[in-house]
Every structure is written in structure tokens, then in C-alpha cells.
Amino acid sequence: MSDSSSDKAPTPTEESGQVVATGDAPSAEILSKLKRAGVSGEVIKMIKMEVTRSHTGPLPTVETYEGYERVCPGAAREILDMAVRQQSHSHQMEKYGATSEFWLPVIGIIAAVSIVISMFVAGVYLALNGHENLAIGVLSGTGIVTVVGAFLQRGKTEEPDTPPPAPRTGNLTRRERRERAAEARKNMINR
User: Fold this and answer.
1) How many domains are contained in the chain?
2) What is the pLDDT of residues 113-139, one digit of tens each?
């Protein structure tokens, strides 16, 4: 739950062209600073003071909390219970996320190793039972590398390459000419 409120204290009101300050005047410290700065008394009267209060969190402010309890007895307890349940849920989800981040790659590695071992065993079995050509195919690693690579690369995405900026046309600055010349020399050396 979050609460963002604004308490506005003295704001000037206009009545038939006159500006009249309402509520409390600015603090003595502010008034002295304004007078030292040469601000006229008319302007000081028109100063708008605004106090902004803001609150963010799982529970409302104490004043709001008391208001809920006055309007609906028992509401304060329900709000507190709701915040406790929400916090418990957040902790469970964070724990699940941390556990998943650890175990999913481990399970992938275990699966890849078990596939490699089973393909090796299958290749040896085929070789011992007179199927040498099939054994060579299984043991050559093409299938093993494909399967293991698929397991190990799962979840990894390549970052898209950003294309280089389009070459500027027209008049180049001195700096741009020097940079292009340096780049051309570097390319010629690296050939």
C-alpha cells in the first residue's frame, strides 16, 4: 500500500484584484532571507508555502491507519495481516527464484553428462556386437556434441549486435577526418 498526499498551507487567494495571504506566513528565517535579498513586502505577502508529505511502504501512515480503524473497526488489523502475508509471499518467491537459478543449470549439466555416458555405452555395445559402422557414428561425437551443446546453451541468448552508425556525409570536422584516417591506416596494417 502506498500513500502520497499533499498538505497545502497558506496559499494566496485573489479577491477583486487583491492578493491576500491566508494561513501562516513563511517562517522567520525565510522572511529574513527574503528581506536581505531585497524582496518587497508585496511580493512576500504573495508567497505560497506548500508542505508536501509523501509516504511509500507496505503500511499506510499512522494517521491514515487510525482513520481506517475509526471508519471500520478491525480494518487496521486486516491491513497489518495483509502486509504480513504479502511479505511472506515475497520472501517465498525470492527463495524460489534463488533456488531455481542454482538448480536448473545443475540439472542441465547432469542431463548432458548422462546423455554422453549413455551414448558412449551404446557405442561400445554396438562395437562389441558387430556393428562397427554404427559404433563409429555414435562414438564420433557428432550426436553427443549436438545434444550436449543444446543442453549447455539452453537459456543463453546472444546479444543483438548494434549496427555501426551510418557514415556521416557532407563536411567532416577536423577530428572526424583524423579519426577516419587513423581507422584507414589501422585497417591497412591489419590486412
Assistant:
1) 1
2) 888 788 888 888 988 998 888 888 877
**Which residue is it, cell 551443446?**
149
Q: How far apart are CA 63 and CA 65, in angstroms?
A: 5
Place of cell 506548500: 50
* pTM, entire model: 0.40
Q: Where are the alpha helices (DSSP H) in the chain?
A: 28-36, 41-45, 62-71, 75-128, 132-139, 142-153, 174-189
Q: Is residue 178 part of a domain?
A: no
pLDDT by residue (tens digit) across 70-98? 999 999 899 989 999 999 999 999 999 88
Q: Which three cell numbers stand for residue 140?
A: 564420433
Q: Distance between CA 51 and CA 174 in Å, rounded?
A: 54
Structural domain including 37 reads: 1-57
